[in-house]
Amino acid sequence: MTTILQPDDATFPGMSEPAKSRTARPVRGLSDRTIAWLFVAPTIALLLAINIFPLLWMIRLSFTSLNLSMSYLPLRFVGLDNFTDILTDEDVWFRLQTTAQFVIWSVALQVIIGYGLALLINRQFRGHSFWTTIILLPMMLSPAVVGNFWTLLLQPQIGPFNYVISLFTGVPPSSFSMTGQVSLAPWTIVLVDTWMWAPYVMLICLAGLRSIPDYIYEAAEVDRASAWRQFWSITLPMTVPFLMLAVLFRAIENFKMFDMVNLLTSGGPGSTTELVSITLKRAAFEKWRTGYSSALAIILFVTVFGAANIYVKALNKVKQR
Amino acid sequence: MRTFNWLRGSAATTVLGVALLGGFGGGEAAAQGKQLTLCWAAWDPANALVELGKDFTKQSGIEMKYEFVPWTSYADRFLNELNSHGKLCDLIIGDSQWIGGAAENKWYVKLNDFFDKEKISMDDFVPATVVGYSQWPKNSPNYWALPAMADAVGWTYRKDWFSRPDIQSAFKAKYGRDLAPPKTYDELKQIAQFFQGREIDGKKVYGAYIFTERGSEGITMGVTNVLYNYGFGYDNPKKPYQMQGVVNSADAAKGLEFYKELYKCCTAPGMTNAYMQEGLDAFKSGQVAMQMNWFAFFPGLYKDPNVGGDRIGFFVNPSGPNGHFTQLGGQGISVVATSDRKDDALAYIKWFAQPAVQQKWWQLGGYSALKAVVDAPNFPKSAAFAPQFLESMGIVKDFWAEPSYAQLLLDMQKRVHDYVVADKGTAQQALDLLVKDWTKVFKEQGKQVALQ
């Protein structure tokens, strides 16, 4: 790609020496490397400006007492106080427990249901495309839309959900509130999240199922392996990496779940469904405790990053097997 | 070389494009006349203000633009704007509790000199609104806003149900007294119990609607109406920030227990996270006999074709065993310090403070805080809810207006919701934890907090 002009002397036979030497001076263009940098530079600049710089700034702020609602107070360096405050706060640990329970239950249900749906959709049947589209619809919706319409569906007096439950159980529809009762609210957010994201897991699993070569099943059939045996010995082991990938994506997403839960329950009743992301948002943008919330964000980032790293290593081991 | 030329060409095109876009933008901006942006909450009085503002535009030639945000995100949105020194709003009708933070952080323009120059006297306004919306520090002659929208918590009831002979006789038979709007919280609970689950016109109805919202300020703005009247205070009047035994006194705990009893016995199912709009919906759909809500909504309710007119009645927040108060709402109008159009914004405030404009503001559905309007002899007869509004404005108390109010508010939201809706712990424990939370916040703010 380097473009250095070297005019061929033969092209200019009558040219005088001084003129020739002027023309023959190599005209330097941009090197491949420079052009590559020119292309990459805007992206790197953007990345530095909107990712790296804020991250470094946040780390700095986490060691300060900054509270934006009291920005007239002098900024104090508080060392590790914010981190100590968070790690010794019983409420934060409760919120982490709530988040862990939400992540575990919702991801487990999504994997089971998503995998089941993938096994069904993997077969050819009439209306296959139609049903695939219908199943995929929930994940195409915005979490804000999902949160709002489930709030209406779950309304104890006018929402159809309670009436359906009433039809099967005989319990009066207005006698229970899915989002307002301490015993039901955590399951409600798991239910809605599963409804929305099981299709996503299904898509990943479907990719895994379609990647298994037919000849393996043909060989199994030659060996007279039953369908159950084929599932346990071929289908499941060969789709495990895909399942693990789905678990990784969903676990990271659910760990930072905010919008849908905020719309459904606002973290209530009380603090029953207050996920750690809601705590973080409240600390940062409602209480304006910038120093404290920066420290909390770092703790959460390190937690997710560490867990994801361990998980990815495990995933690689599974792939190598 | 071609690549380089292409790059240069692209850059030139981009620069040209940006310049052209900038040129068009600049042209458009230049074509616009004077304009002011006013920020407030999206609710009924905001529509009245838009109507009122047309007169200002006619007189001054200044166009008014409005940024109205729903109540649930109002504080988030505008405090973020003020915190980041944004230029979205020239004028802001900010909540009463923001005044401390807005003054200390210099988000608002101090209006003393302007008031002196324009001969706008704060003595002309209802005292509670001056203290609540304008002054920081409280009870000092430092003004950061003009009282714009007086408001307080009041109650509506189904006058048509209350006046039915069959319902009246059933009530008298049960409680030995006439069914009438309650004067005390015990009476209110009795009436609410009476209506709870009753069938009226073939429809099951419920006793009362009260605030329970968790996310912003709802349950705090509801529970304080009971707490104040049972003996709850924010701090010792003689020792500022001394909260132990004031916030969590035995009487205050009884008040909190009462609110929970009222919530459990007498509200409609599913009202676990409900604030203004849910209350309006419940009342308009004929679901509840009595509704707690802000006076600001009462003009709209009175006009409602299904439950308004003769069917609706209003009463002042009932008293409790230890007092008679109600929660202050409402806001003052301020000039945002970062605005580039401060002079025009001040011109708007000067115009808005005029008695004739304030009178029209009240007629359109806003609530004036000007004495010339509310103390006029015909004011009590000017609206069905005017007498109750006047009485309420004389007994209002407000939440903390400290710069750290948001932390204090969210702590109270959590502790009260945990106890009332999520059945966590006792009332005494909830208030003890609240004192602990608030002590921590004030200490962070650098305040001396006396424990006893």
Structure characterization notes:
The complex is a heterodimer of chains A (321) and B (452). Helices cover 70% and strands 0% of the residues of chain A. By secondary structure, chain A is mostly helical. The longest helix of chain A has 32 residues, at 90-121. Chain B has 19 helices and 13 strands. With 452 residues, chain B is an alpha/beta fold. In chain B, α10 (218-230) crosses α11, α10 (218-230) packs across α18 and α18 packs antiparallel against α19 (427-444).
Neighbour order of strands in the largest sheet of chain B: 2-1-3-12-4
Approximately how much helix is present in the residues of chain A? 55-70%
The span between the termini of chain B is 82 Å
| Cα-atom radius of gyration of chain B | 25 Å
Helical amount of chain B? 40-55%
* Secondary structure tally, helices of chain A: 13
Query: Which two chains form the greatest contact, residue counts included?
Result: A-B, 40 and 41 residues
Question: What is the chain-wise order of helices and strands of chain A?
Answer: HHHHHHHHHHHHH
What oligomeric state is this?
A: heterodimer
From the spread of the alpha carbons, the general shape of chain B counts as: globular
Mean pLDDT of chain B, to the nearest integer, reads 92
Instruction: Give the beta-strand count of chain B.
Output: 13
Structural class of chain B: alpha/beta
Distance between the termini of chain A: 43 Å
What is the 3D shape of chain A? globular
- Mean pLDDT metric of chain A: 90
Largest sheet of chain A: none
SSE arrangement:
The complex is a heterodimer of chains A (321) and B (452).
Chain A: H1 17-24, H2 32-61, H3 81-87, H4 90-121, H5 128-140, H6 143-153, H7 160-169, H8 185-210, H9 214-222, H10 227-255, H11 259-265, H12 276-286, H13 290-320
Helix pairs in contact in A: 3-13, 4-8, 4-10, 5-8, 6-11, 8-10, 10-13, 12-13
Chain B: H1 2-31, E1 35-41, H2 44-60, E2 63-69, H3 71-83, E3 91-95, H4 99-104, H5 112-118, H6 127-134, E4 146-149, E5 153-158, H7 159-162, H8 165-175, H9 185-195, E6 199-200, E7 203-204, E8 206-209, H10 218-230, H11 250-266, H12 276-284, E9 288-294, H13 298-303, E10 312-316, E11 326-327, E12 331-335, H14 342-352, H15 355-364, H16 371-374, H17 386-393, E13 396-397, H18 405-420, H19 427-444
Parallel strand pairs in B: 1-2, 1-3, 8-9, 11-13
Antiparallel strand pairs in B: 3-12, 4-12, 5-9, 5-10, 6-7
